[in-house]
Amino acid sequence: MDAVVFDLDGVLVDSERMWDEVRQAFAARHGGAWLPTSTRAMQGMSTPEWATYLVTEVGVRLTPAEAAAGVIGEMAERYAEGPPVLPGAVEIVREVASRYPVAIASSSPPVLIKSFLAATDLTDVVPVALSSEQAGAGKPAPDVYLLAASKLGVEPTLCAAVEDSTNGLRSALAAGMTVYAVPNPHFPPDPEVLRQVTVLRELSDLPAALAG
């Protein structure tokens, strides 16, 4: 591998449940009806995509722009108290970055990615940090991973990707990367997708897996 691209939510920060809680509560306050499929459907979507989904599928009585601003505002308030960084995540990023160029390819909006980098003092360690809304389509489309590879100056097929969710894994696979899964225990990935990737017990196993 010539570079490593990390997902953010569920890999470096324990935020998948936070996103779900905030969006569900926001939807309930604005006339929406949460569907059994809504949580998984929105994992990996870019901001414009999930905001539109909240309006058209969940029934939130706002415009997509208003829904996006409201949810992101609440998430930013929670991040202001300190992002929910997963144990050991910062150390693993630093260790991997000592051997490879690294990037973040996330479905989070840029403001939350920047908040994470600033809070963890990783801004100078991670030269490329992208939101899928900067790349076009959200995950499972490969756009954000392809853009990350391009910004790093590395062919996608020579990149490793680290993901936790079904849509994230599909995105990285579609980009042609070598994919490592750290399955999210709260939202387990599709077993069929897991069969196509290397599954790690935890993120701390990544450096040895890359070396092997």
From TrEMBL:
Any one GO molecular-function label of the UniProt entry: hydrolase activity
Name the keywords, alphabetized: Hydrolase
**Gene3D superfamilies the record matches:** HAD superfamily/HAD-like (3.40.50.1000), Putative phosphatase, domain 2 (1.10.150.240)
Keyword check for RNA-binding, yes or no: no
PANTHER family per UniProt: 2-DEOXYGLUCOSE-6-PHOSPHATE PHOSPHATASE 2, PSEUDOURIDINE-5'-PHOSPHATASE
Official protein name in the record: HAD superfamily hydrolase (TIGR01509 family)
Q: Which organism is it from?
A: Saccharothrix ecbatanensis
